[in-house]
């Protein structure tokens, strides 16, 4: 017996699904979770559609999670779906971060708050650095990409050039060369 | 919208388009503009906000929302959020819209592969800038490196790790080391 296609979620349902994803996501690893939710569990889109969206979300600028929310929302419900999914992933989490920040501000009178926050910051930098090292590991061991990576690092970290120009120059050069090598 | 919110919007709008490989890559430039160019926050306040944004759920780019909120309240938060998410949201929306007619597999592959070293360089630069902004000396740097090693070697929950970093400093403080 053929399985009847599941009903497409409404814009409100998309908002709620992405709100839940946004509020339970700590430190990444979300694409696997979205794959389970939309492809495997609810069967709302094909795996190929999902993976196409994922590689576009990663190639284009923007946060992968928010890009994916817009991609999935658009596929399932057009413009309204894209807007609802985007609002779902951003707005509830934005309110929570301001709430957390206010809690810290109201505790600002205690010296321990600053000490704890400084310790949290040190550990949090580990998240950034480990992500950078993981990204660096995925760079092909060839002269050109390694030189692009080093040049980008020096331009941003040491010379403190504006990111826009660095990305425009290094990015287009790197993409053009990669495209021609095909 | 007050004038300061417009200035905040003007800072984050262009930054949106360079968040390749996730919001993490724009942190170095956010720091440069917010702390060095405009002087809206001190380096310590910036690192505090960064820590809070890692503690909180949701996309890491909500750091922008938090910075806007700290500088100029509601309007600042709104301006920063629209700035950092708006342009890329329109971009992916446009691509999703034309994807069915778009035979861009090869270009897409070149985009993804070609931008990889740029993203890696930017994220490493962000870590470098953040480590330099720490005012807790070699203990802080050591903790940052230890946390990096733990994250790379074990599937530790990042939230636990950050909580561990905070407790570690509180204990060291009680032992009068920081």
Key words describing this protein structure:
heterodimer; A: 182 residues; mainly alpha; 0% strand; B: 178 residues; 7 helices; 78% helix
Structure write-up:
- The complex is a heterodimer of chains A (182) and B (178).
- Chain A has 182 residues and is mostly helical.
- Chain A contains 7 helices and no strands.
- The longest helix of chain A has 43 residues.
- Chain A starts with 10 loop residues before the first helix and ends with a helix.
- Chain B has a domain of 113 residues.
- In chain B, α1 packs across α4 and α3 packs across α4.
- Chains A and B meet through α1, α3, α4, α5 and α6 of A and α1, α2, α3, α4 and α5 of B.
Alpha plus pi helix count of chain B:
7
Q: Please state the structural category of chain A.
A: mainly alpha
Taking the alpha carbons of the first and last residues of chain A, their distance comes to 45 Å
Tally of alpha and pi helices of chain A: 7
**Biggest β-sheet description of chain B:** none
Domain count of chain A, please report it: 2
- How many strands of chain A? 0
Strand-and-helix sequence of chain A, N→C?
HHHHHHH
Structural Rg of chain B: 18 Å
Helix share, percent of chain A = over 70%
Pairing-aware structural class of the strands and helices of chain B?
mainly alpha
Counted beta strands of chain B: 0
The largest interface is: A-B, 92 and 106 residues
The best one-word shape of chain A is flat
Helix content of chain B: over 70%
**How far apart lie the N and C ends of chain B?**
42 Å
- CA radius of gyration of chain A is 20 Å
Uncertain runs of chain B with pLDDT below 50, 5 residues or more?
none
Mean pLDDT of chain A: 85
* Gross geometry of chain B: globular
The low-confidence runs of chain A, each spanning 5 or more residues with pLDDT under 50, are: none
């Amino acid at each position: 017996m053929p399985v009847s296609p599941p009903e497409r979620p409404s814009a409100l349902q998309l908002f709620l699904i992405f709100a839940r994803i946004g509020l339970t996501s700590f430190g990444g690893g979300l694409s696997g979770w979205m794959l389970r939710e939309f492809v495997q569990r609810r069967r709302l889109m094909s795996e190929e559609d999902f993976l196409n969206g994922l590689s576009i979300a990663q190639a284009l600028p923007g946060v992968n999670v928010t890009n994916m929310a817009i991609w999935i929302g658009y596929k399932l419900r057009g413009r309204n779906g894209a807007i609802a999914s985007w609002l779902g992933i951003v707005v509830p989490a934005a309110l929570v971060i301001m709430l957390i920040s206010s809690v810290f501000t109201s505790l600002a009178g205690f010296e321990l708050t600053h000490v704890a926050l400084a310790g949290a910051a040190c550990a949090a930098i580990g998240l950034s650095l480990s992500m950078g090292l993981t990204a660096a590991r995925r760079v092909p061991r060839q002269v050109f990409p390694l030189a692009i990576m080093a040049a980008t690092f020096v331009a941003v970290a040491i010379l403190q050039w504006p990111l826009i120009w660095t990305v425009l120059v290094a990015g287009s050069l790197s993409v053009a060369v990669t495209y021609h090598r095909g | 919208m007050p004038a300061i919110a417009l200035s905040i919007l003007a800072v984050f709008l262009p930054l949106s388009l360079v968040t390749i490989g996730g919001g993490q890559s724009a942190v170095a430039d956010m720091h440069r503009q917010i702390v060095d160019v405009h002087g809206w926050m001190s380096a310590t306040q910036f690192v505090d906000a960064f820590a809070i944004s890692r503690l909180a759920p949701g996309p890491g780019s909500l750091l922008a929302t938090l910075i806007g909120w700290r500088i100029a309240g509601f309007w600042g938060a709104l301006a920063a959020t629209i700035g950092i998410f708006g342009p890329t949201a329109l971009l992916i929306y446009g691509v999703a819209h034309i994807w069915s007619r778009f035979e861009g597999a090869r270009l897409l592959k070149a985009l993804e592969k070609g931008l990889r070293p740029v993203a890696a360089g930017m994220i490493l630069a962000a870590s470098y800038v953040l480590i330099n902004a720490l005012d807790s000396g070699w203990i802080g740097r050591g903790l940052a490196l230890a946390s990096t090693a733990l994250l790379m070697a074990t599937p530790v929950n990042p939230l636990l790790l950050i909580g561990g970093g905070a407790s570690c400093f509180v204990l060291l403080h009680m032992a009068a080391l920081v």
